[in-house]
Amino acid sequence: MSDTHAQTVAFVRETQIPPAPPPATETGVIKWVRENLFSSWVNSILTILSIYFIVRGVIAVYPWFANGVWGTSDLATCRQILDGATGACFSVLQDRWRQMIFGIAYPDDQYWRPLLAFALLLVCVAPVLFSKLPRKLLILSALYPFLAYWLIWGGTIMIPIMVMVGFVAGYYAFTWAERASGFAAGLASFVVTASVVWFIGGLISGAMPGFIALQEVPSRDMGGFMLNMILGTICVSLSLPLGIVLALGRQSSMPIIKGICVVFIEFIRGVPLITLLFVANVVLAYFFPPGTNLDLILRVIIMITMFSAAYIAEVIRGGLAALPKGQYEAGDSLGLNYSQSMRLIILPQALKISIPGIVNVAVGLFKDTTLVSVISMFDLVGVLRGPILSSTAWTGIYWEAFGFAALLFFVVCYGISQYSQWLERQLRTDHR
Amino acid sequence: MSTISDPGAGNDGFRIGMLINDTRYRSYTFQFLALLALIFGIGYLISNLLANLAANGLNISWAFLGEPAGYDINQRPIEYTSQSTHARASIVGAINTLIVAFLACISATVLGIIAGVLRLSNNWIVSKLMSIYVEAFRNVPVLIWILIIFLAMSNAFPQPRDFRGDDPVASMWFDAVAFTNRGVYIPSFVNGEGSGIFWLVVLASIVGVFAYRRYARSLLYSTGRLLPTGWPSLAILIAPGLLAFFALGQPVSLQYPELRGFNFRDGIHLRLSLIALWFALAIYTGAFIAENVRAGIQAISKGQTEAAAALGMRPGRIMNLVILPQALRVIIPPLISQYLNITKNSSLAIAVGYMDITGTLGGITLNQTGRAIESILLLMLFYLIVSLSISAIMNVYNNSVKLKER
Amino acid sequence: MKKSVILGALTVAGLAAGAAGAATLDDVKARGTLNCGVTTGVPGFAEPDANGVWQGFDVAVCRAVAAAVLGDGNAVEFVPTTGKTRFTALASGEIDMLARNTTWTFSRDVDLKFEFTGVNYYDGQGFMVPKDLGVTSAKELDGATVCIQTGTTTELNLADFFRSNGISYEPVPIETGSEAVQLFTAGSCDVYTTDRSALAAQRANFANPDDYVVLPEVVSKEPLGPLVRHGDHEWGDIVRWTLNALITAEELGVTSDNISEMSMEAGNNPEINRLLGTEGTLGEMLGLDAEWAKRAIMVGGNYGEVFANNIGESTNIGLARGLNAQWTDGGLIYSPPFR
Questions:
Q1: Which of A219, B175, C40, C327 is the most buried (most CB within 10 A)?
Q2: The domain spanning residue A264 has which CATH number?
Q3: Res A207 pLDDT > 80
């Protein structure tokens, strides 16, 4: 073909010209900006407005951070240093961080214990959260509650050991009795064996109070962010089994059991947590036998556990309902009885799909533990509103203190919710 | 033990063991035991309660509800003085709860829908800003937000005193709205003669707008004719009211707030506690609703958008006519629980001194009378009734928009 | 099920506080600590310092009782309570005594079944306003916005005062003292009302205290004192007479400086001897040992020293003795005789 060209037309190019670069508006940063920020006039307005607000925000907030004062021991000195300029008095954090994190009464020299418990929490909860880790590590998670109790509350190590021994003995009694004569018998023998072991264990640990003992810290001395963490962790882990039982009860075909569960769940979900805390604080004591007196923190744990169990039950009920009916029928056709088919077929699947929902409930619950400040417990918010902000040195400060509190909660809750989203992506099996 | 003895085969009748081993009877056994345990449990708690009350020389009595409350409430939707009864104080508190819950529900919904849609916007900076908003508010306890907003507003806004003088530090907006650190003062309506008719006309025109839009939609669905909805609705909304207003000789006038003495007088006073609580609940719950809206929109298959685009619809129309109506079905159930959350979280009013029912019945009344059990029981009953009513109403609405399945 | 198991375990572990039977004294001795209810933080009266150690005027009463009963002024668990929770905490036995500037009123004594064991501070409700408001009397406060700290008798007194004077006001109820102060100093309310002692204490913390004045009106009587449950009179006596011992010590000139010297041997003032246990068997009658009052006084000094160190004129709270001077100095502080 080329020779025809050569003879007929003089100016035909012999070689192809190299491709021209795309117009400047269609490449790189400019293209990105055009497409993402100024694609239409509405978008342009939104972009300009957003930039305006961001700039205004930065101008307003920057000097507050930049002029931040550290190292003073009260607000008056800090304001003197600032001398009228905009600036934060971060020294309140420096002065009172111990109270914000550990509460006002936890002994100073024992701070390593809750810190260690927290670090271990991260380690021991990992096998539960990440199914890729070896399953044997779950033993660590099972050991954790006892270890954490010993670390935080102190006392002799015999108490958690004995409680644990009770559980183990009960578990073996359960498997033995269940194989012999059914689930109900297994449950009964669990309760009996465990109680016997605990009774004996109580005698043993009562006899040797100094055996590998840490300094005892009464639960009243727990406070600050630590209290929020304790309440959140304990109540979520206690409410899981209770929530499963409630969810199964609500799905049950027995009208009375179903009725009890429905009334309980709907009642708890219908009232604010704060009224339940009022109950824990001012009413619950009247319902215990005369002469007994449970600690406030224990009463609060009972009420918050009931609260979160109702919400978790609803999440799990959603998981149960989402399973195809064939799974239930498969269990029946294999000749499994109720407890077997639940434990081996239904619950593992139902729980797996409810995990993201459960994590959401857990995050919500963790945030709601701040409400205990309303009933005069010194959690993070309580310790700020009470002793710190009304102290002689720090009256009149709030942005720094509450900002720090918000930051702590944000870090934890954002972390958990990122995990939940990751898990949702892992569990997603459809193709979109 | 899943083996079932066939009761028809043997003629040995009923044996005690069948209560445990026969599935027909076992459920009755369990239920009977559960019922027994429940009755005994409740009986035990009540006997403890009675014993404790007797030991402390206390009793359960509702007489305190009829006694004069003795304290004042600042926001009084119904008539109330310090000589009114505790029962009336509780009702005032209940209405205040409903007021703040209603306001917060509306604003949270609007905020949530805007933020949820903007978060999916293809404008990078806007969608990032919205994610920051959503994450920042979802991950911090609402109590902290309420306190921060309350304290920040009381420090940031000017005092009423600053409006005074020849060269005031602060001034009112259009001489009608004053933002102070005691709240916002807005003009109120003064109803003159014939105002009843005027308000009826306004009400009728609001109904008229909905009727017109309904008509326009049914016309669209049956004939495909697209009636304009924007300006006619506006006209229906405003024109009759304006006509009636001048025809009746301006029966309704505005009363502007005015600085007299220590405070602004006249006009409507939206108190700082109300605004802080309302605002905090709205933006906190708005962040959750934004997530629900985003999830709802993303749940609609992309094919729907593409199909609508293939039919030549504009993006705005696609959102309004194709995506949102379908997304709504996904959004409404979580929205109901968000409304319930707002109602329940409004009990945090106690942190900022807003006199809702937790502040009156569960707060000052409880403190002054010491009737803890009675007050808290009533308080829970109130929230239970409100929650159940909201779920009932919203469930009816949910059923009406639900996809009618085959 | 797991829940009840763990609760049981926790109970075994001693999380549960001791039983609240009739004999509070035995409980306290068995436990080794005194559970004392205080506020969540009122400067000068009860607040934890930067090290978490509770300090203040009310706290000193708790420490004195602990010293008298247990021999150690630090053997006290301070339980912070709010206006709402204090009475139930006491009634349910969570705390052994309440020393939380609580007003002695008829209904609390009779209807709520508590026993007030004396008065450690005679107070009255007052008003504080910014100086530049130009107000000199509470009766000029028509239409003012009033910040109230809730959970006390304050709301009722306020309503009564304004109603009887026929003037209107806008109440702003606030749960905690720190937030009330925030609002007041920011100008969100014109007036701040609570007990005059608390007004003075909180004013001392303001950035510029001189810009605020406390109005002369005292609209109520607020005798504040420690209280215990009805029914346990032995325990009530211990708390009552510990407080009286502090008061009597001041009257008799027994101070934390000279007490060890005075208690070495019986002196020539028989009442001092009986107080310090060098003569008579007063301690035994209370179910304590002879040196109970000596230990109570040694913790923080006598009533006058406690007052001066926590809220007196030399502290930045700066309260004058006023009504709280000894009866010999024209005040109301008066203890029945030790004999």
A1: C40
A2: 1.10.3720.10
A3: no
